[in-house]
Design a protein that fits this description.
alpha/beta; 9-stranded mixed beta sheet; Rossmann fold; single chain; about 270 residues; about 20% strand; globular
């Protein structure tokens, strides 16, 4: 892609300070800032989990972007878009919100530690919410960088359901893999994910609806893979190496020093 990379869309599962520090949350916070400082335009999205304090973090609704409904499994749910600023980074973060999916106080598990049964639907809603919002903004990204398992539906939708939209005609997907893949989703996840030009054969791998298989599905519709942590499932590391795609290996030293930002920037430019 070379010098033509001007706009990078970050689709994150976590961003500090809205969620506690972790590898994913810290990268979600500092990578977009670093890419912006390298003269690229950025947009950054994450889910508006119920544990995020709206008053403390000064979230407010963007009325012009809210208001559409997203249908999953024949149920209409309103898409609400909120925004907040990280003033030290001179960047905004957009939040995908919906009362049914994102107002519970814990992120992915209930008080018994059980994975929410609708987490697959939440990932579907998040992916479509991001893509529909970017369409509404008329902001054509060169790179869409997906980080964290809840972003793993997006590459499929981009390449199969939104492929004919001129906003995304030149977009390439970078997928960062971490050790956060869920064990499994409910059996009906495969049928719920069908949308637009997505066919059953496209998602055949979800006949066994595991987090590993969703990550493989995301990788198969990506243009480059970054191993973002040292605890990525060995099966996914192997899958990435055999994918034929450019792969950026995990580098603990670069993550520690912050030089990973330059590595990621070069990775975008060379796709």
């Amino acid at each position: 892609m070379g010098e033509s990379v001007k706009r990078v869309l970050f689709v994150n599962s976590e961003i500090f300070p809205y969620l506690p520090e972790s590898d994913i949350a810290n990268i979600g916070r500092f990578l977009p800032q670093g890419i912006q400082e390298r003269k690229k335009e950025i947009r950054s999205f994450m889910p508006r989990y119920g544990c995020i304090n709206e008053r403390k973090n000064q979230l407010h609704e963007v009325i012009r972007l809210s208001g559409m409904n997203i249908v999953i499994n024949d149920v209409d749910r309103p898409l609400v878009i909120k925004v907040a600023s990280i003033s030290a980074a001179r960047m905004q973060v957009y939040f995908i919100d919906n009362e049914d999916y994102f107002h519970r106080k814990s992120i992915y598990r209930n008080e018994k530690g059980e994975f929410f049964s609708d987490n697959g639907e939440r990932a579907i809603f998040f992916a479509r919410g991001v893509l529909e919002t970017i369409k509404k903004q008329r902001w054509a990204p060169d790179i869409i960088h997906c980080q964290g398992w809840i972003s793993h539906v997006l590459p499929l939708y981009l390449k199969k359901a939104y492929i004919d939209d001129p906003i995304f005609s030149h977009s390439k997907v970078v997928l960062s893999l971490y050790g956060d893949t869920p064990a499994e989703f409910p059996e009906d996840f495969k049928s719920k994910i069908l949308f637009g030009g997505v066919t059953e054969s496209d998602v055949e791998i979800l006949s066994e609806p595991t987090g590993i298989n969703l990550a493989k599905l995301a990788a198969s519709y990506s243009d480059g893979i970054i191993l973002g942590a040292d605890n990525v499932a060995p099966e996914l590391v192997e899958y990435s190496k055999n994918s034929g795609l450019p792969v950026l290996p995990f580098n603990a030293e670069a993550l520690q020093s912050g030089s990973y930002i330059e590595d990621y920037n070069s990775f975008y430019d060379n796709l």
